[in-house]
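Lecture notes, continued. The same structure-token format from the folding unit now serves as the input rather than the output. Read the line below as a description of shape only.
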């Protein structure tokens, strides 16, 4: 398969390079990735600045194109302008850090895969939770799931959000299909003062799991229990069950 590989940690990130070397064993891999780290870029795209694309070479034969844009920019420009042939799949990662619960909404890693799905391509995002990270088990898991992605078809617009525990392969319990949970980061803003006496803030915080997200059918719970979590995601954000109930509000009868 021709695989477009991207990420949000930037083209120099070890997770991207580990995944490149693993996928290259059995696929044609093309890398188009942000030139610098763009974690938490979400699904942002660049409209008011030009995008510059440069060839990049790394260790052990790693090569690709760097783009001074976001992960979603990278997928769009790769498919529409850089690659001579359309890819058969888009893989984003391996991100250093889990993308579960509400983090999914901020994640550039996940948004690159979502963008691939919006362009009609099979796509998945791969992330690892832990520190320090050994990316090799997650790269092996990504290769297995990519083969599955090629053999099966995802519904239009659906992409896979894959989170892998930072464990040796033999200690990973297996793969669970999960849903996006309620894990979220509770922010704290550290207030400091610069040398000229002006206040500034650093955003910090810690992850919190809400009680409802304890079952292994939920992404962060499965991950914490040592499973690979695979959530199928869909870019339609409508709360559809509530949309039907909302007709009871009688908004249609309001005279404007
Ligand atoms: Mn990242």
């Amino acid at each position: 398969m021709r695989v477009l590989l991207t990420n949000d940690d930037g083209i120099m990130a070890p997770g991207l390079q580990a995944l490149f070397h693993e996928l290259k064993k059995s696929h044609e891999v093309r890398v188009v990735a942000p030139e610098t780290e763009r974690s938490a870029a979400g699904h942002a795209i660049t409209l008011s600045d030009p995008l510059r694309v440069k060839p990049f070479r790394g260790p052990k034969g790693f090569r690709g194109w760097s783009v001074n844009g976001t992960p979603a920019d990278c997928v769009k420009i790769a498919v529409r302008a850089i690659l001579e042939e359309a890819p058969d799949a888009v893989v984003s990662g391996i991100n250093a850090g889990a993308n579960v619960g509400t983090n999914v909404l901020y994640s550039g890693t996940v948004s690159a895969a979502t963008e691939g799905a919006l362009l009609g391509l099979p796509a998945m995002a791969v992330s690892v939770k832990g520190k320090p990270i050994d990316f090799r088990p997650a790269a092996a898991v990504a290769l297995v799931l990519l083969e599955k992605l090629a053999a099966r078809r995802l519904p239009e617009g659906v992409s896979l959000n894959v989170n892998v525990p930072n464990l040796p392969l033999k200690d990973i319990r297996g793969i669970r299909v999960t849903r996006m949970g309620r894990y979220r980061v509770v922010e704290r803003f550290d207030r400091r003062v610069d040398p000229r006496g002006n206040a500034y803030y650093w955003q910090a915080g810690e992850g919190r799991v809400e009680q409802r997200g304890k079952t292994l059918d939920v992404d962060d719970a499965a991950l914490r229990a040592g499973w690979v979590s695979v959530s199928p995601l869909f870019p339609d954000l409508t709360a559809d069950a509530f949309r039907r109930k909302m007709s009871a509000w009688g908004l249609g009868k309001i005279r404007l």
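Point for the exam: The chain has a mean pLDDT of 95.
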